[in-house]
Each structure stands twice: as C-alpha cells, then as structure tokens.
C-alpha cells in the first residue's frame, strides 16, 4: 500500500484537520482488468439475477434463500463452505434458489472490524487494495462453484470493484434511510433488499425501495476513478427485508401482512424477505434455526407473501472474538451463525415446504396448473 499524502497533526489549514492521510487505491478498471469476470461467470450472474427477480415477484414459485456467514474473515473457510453449499443447492434447485451470502463490508453500531475489504489482515493494518483483491478472488471462486453471490453494499465506491460478480445486494438496517445508499441502489444492476431500520421501522425500508426505483443524479466516480456526476435509471427490483428491531422480532404473520400493506400503498411488489437472524432471533444461533423452521412451516401452509429468507450460517455454530488465539476454523467473528449441519437440514426443509405449498395450491385451484408447474 503506498501513501499519497500524510497530513501532519496541527497543520495550519482549514481542511483536513481530522484527516491523517491518503493512501493509493487502484481504480476499479485496474482491479477488474486484473481479475476479470469472464463470459461463463457473467452468464451465471445474469441468469441468477433474473431468477431472483422472478422469485421475488412470484412468477417463479421457488423460495429464495440467501445463506452464508455473517462476514467473511477467512477466504479458505468461505471456499470450503461454498463447496458444501453448492452441493445441497444443486440437490434442491427445483424448489429453492440458493444465493451464498458473501459479506465483505460490515456496518458497525459504533466501532469494530469493518470487514475483509477494509481490513483483510484482521489486525488494523487496513490494506484495502489487498482486501479488494482477496474479495474479488473469492467471488470468482464462489461463482465457479455454480453459486450466485449476495453482498451488503456499504461503501458508495466499493461496488465498482465487485458488483459485476454479485447477483443480489442488501442495504443494511443502519443505512436503509440514507439517501446516499438509496441513490447507489438506484444504479445497481441486481435486485436490492432494504432492511427495516434497527428500531424496527419498516416504512423506511419501503421508502428505500420507492426511492431506489426512481432515477437519480448524484456525486460518484467512474471506473477510471475520476469524480463524476452519476445519472441512474432507477432499480425496480427493490424489496423489503424484515429483520426485527429493538422492540423484538417482526416475522409473525401479522408483521408480514403489515409490511405487505405498506408495499401495496407504495405500489410495490407485495412480497418480502425474512431475515431469520439479527433481531428476529435476538442474534442467537439456536433460536435462528427455530425461526427458520417456523418460516418454512408457514411457506408449506401457503403463506405466499414470504418470497425469500436470509440465514446466517457457517461451518461451526456460534461466534468468537477476533482476539481468539487461535481462531476456530469456520466460525464467525461477527454475529453468531448456525452450523453447517443445521443449514443443510433447513435447505431440504425449505425445499419440502415449497413442494407442499405447490400441492396445496394445486388442490385449491381444482386442477389448474400451479405457478410451479408453469415455472415461467
Ligand atoms: O450483522 C452484523 C452485525 O449485526 C452488524 O454489523 C452490527 O454489529 P455490531 O453491533 O456488533 O457493531
Ligand atoms: C448487518 C447486517 O444486518 P442488519 O443490517 O440487519 O443489522 C447483516 O445482514 O450483516
């Protein structure tokens, strides 16, 4: 990492009084050029983005599952996880569309490790160029397993380094009301989920979808790293993610129908994703498994507004501090995750739930073909 400028503390100046310095960052074009997506992976990204959009609007009757670690801290463990997930994803693909959660950017309540891109050494050396290279390398490998990828977009400039490889994106609970993030979403090329706010406010997520659907003009930068005025077309594939809030969970049938009411009022697609983790399970990995199982049961019983589910899952259950020495392989260093064994069981349970819902619809439609049979 090369330094462009160190700003001495106490220098007499009206600017940069609180900026310690600037370090060199490769341009998006340089990074993507050195680690190209390639035609085969690009086809997978394009196809999976379309499939995700169709599951979200209900024209594909599968359920979308965004599954993976809270954060990636060890790319090899993430590759190991991807290989396991890809095998089960293939097995359930007629019923479940699996997207691997590959989160490189962590929003913090106050301070803490901000993810692999920001600090790939996990040691406050902040080698961001290496973080971007390692992150992109992992994305390409996950795609090579045949798995589409989902990320949270937190930094307004970082998507230019990785978004070509991403099929689904999230705007998190701490940024869902941010104009900067809504503008960013309006220009992103994949379906974007807006989380409800940390206080449980769902309307801000609905408003996020509405704002992102519109075209915007804002400050940004080009692939060559030049500051520019960005003009977007708007992203019609925004959706709401119910993640619970400070008051507790919000995945009950009444919460889902409340969110649907708000979506209807805003003229948006009336279906949601439920995040089984975070405040919907009190960040408890054991509870998260129970929450996910309950949601699968409701899908089986025909609750059609649940289009998608997010699971935080890794190889080992629970979490550990970054100060653990040694770090346990395959265990989260941020929020608690469910273990791989429970995850594989749940993927199959969601597949069975989708099949049960199809049968139910087939029976109630008195012989009319189900959406699953049409699979348009
Ligand atoms: O998903 C991860 C965390 O919930 C989020 O990054 C906030 O974490 P923190 O409250 O530990 O900072
Ligand atoms: C940070 C996350 O969630 P939330 O924004 O809901 O807290 C996450 O999904 O990693």
From TrEMBL:
Xref: InterPro entries: Aldolase_TIM, DAHP1/KDSA, DAHP_synth_1
Lineage start: Bacteria, Bacillati, Actinomycetota, Actinomycetes, Mycobacteriales
UniProt function note: Stereospecific condensation of phosphoenolpyruvate (PEP) and D-erythrose-4-phosphate (E4P) giving rise to 3-deoxy-D-arabino-heptulosonate-7-phosphate (DAHP).
NCBIfam families: aroFGH, PRK12755.1
Domain DAHP synthetase I/KDSA: 54-346
Pfam family, one: DAHP_synth_1
Family of this protein: Belongs to the class-I DAHP synthase family.
Reaction catalyzed: D-erythrose 4-phosphate + phosphoenolpyruvate + H2O = 7-phospho-2-dehydro-3-deoxy-D-arabino-heptonate + phosphate
Protein's recorded name: Phospho-2-dehydro-3-deoxyheptonate aldolase
UniProt entry keywords in alphabetical sequence: Amino-acid biosynthesis, Aromatic amino acid biosynthesis, Transferase
UniProt GO molecular function: 3-deoxy-7-phosphoheptulonate synthase activity
Record organism: Tomitella fengzijianii
Keyword RNA-binding on entry: no
Pathway in which the depicted protein is active: Metabolic intermediate biosynthesis; chorismate biosynthesis; chorismate from D-erythrose 4-phosphate and phosphoenolpyruvate: step 1/7
């Amino acid at each position: 990492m090369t330094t462009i400028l160190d700003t001495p503390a106490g220098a007499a100046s009206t600017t940069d009084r609180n900026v310690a310095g600037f370090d060199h960052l490769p341009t998006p074009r340089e990074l993507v050029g050195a680690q190209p997506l390639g035609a085969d992976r690009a086809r997978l990204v394009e196809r999976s983005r379309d499939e995700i959009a169709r599951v979200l609007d209900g024209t594909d009757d599968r359920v979308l599952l965004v599954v993976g670690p809270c954060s990636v801290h060890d790319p090899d463990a993430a590759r190991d996880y991807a290989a396991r997930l890809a095998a089960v994803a293939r097995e359930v693909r007629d019923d479940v569309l699996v997207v691997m959660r590959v989160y490189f950017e962590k929003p913090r309540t106050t301070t803490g490790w901000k993810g692999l891109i920001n600090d790939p050494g996990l040691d406050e050396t902040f080698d961001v160029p290496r973080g971007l290279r390692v992150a992109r390398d992992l994305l390409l490998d996950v795609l090579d397993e045949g798995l589409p990828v989902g990320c949270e977009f937190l930094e307004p400039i970082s998507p230019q380094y990785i978004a070509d490889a991403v099929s689904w994106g999230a705007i998190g609970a701490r940024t869902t009301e941010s104009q900067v993030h809504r503008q960013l979403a309006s220009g992103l090329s994949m379906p974007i989920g807006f989380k409800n706010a940390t206080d449980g406010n769902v309307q801000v997520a609905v408003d996020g979808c509405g704002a992102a659907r519109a075209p915007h003009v804002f400050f940004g930068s080009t692939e060559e790293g030049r500051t520019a005025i960005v003009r977007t077309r708007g992203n019609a594939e925004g959706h709401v993610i119910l993640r619970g809030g400070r008051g507790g969970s919000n995945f009950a049938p009444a919460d889902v129908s409340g969110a649907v009411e708000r979506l209807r009022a805003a003229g948006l697609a009336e279906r949601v994703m439920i995040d089984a983790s975070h405040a919907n399970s009190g960040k408890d990995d054991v509870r998260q498994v129970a929450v996910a199982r309950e949601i699968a049961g409701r899908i089986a019983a025909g609750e059609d507004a649940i289009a998608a589910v997010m699971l935080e899952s890794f190889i080992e259950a629970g979490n550990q501090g970054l100060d653990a020495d040694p770090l346990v392989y395959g265990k989260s260093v941020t929020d608690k995750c469910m273990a791989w064994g429970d995850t594989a069981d749940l993927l199959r349970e969601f597949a069975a739930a989708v099949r049960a819902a199809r049968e139910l619809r087939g029976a109630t439609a008195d012989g009319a073909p189900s959406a699953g049979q049409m699979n348009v």
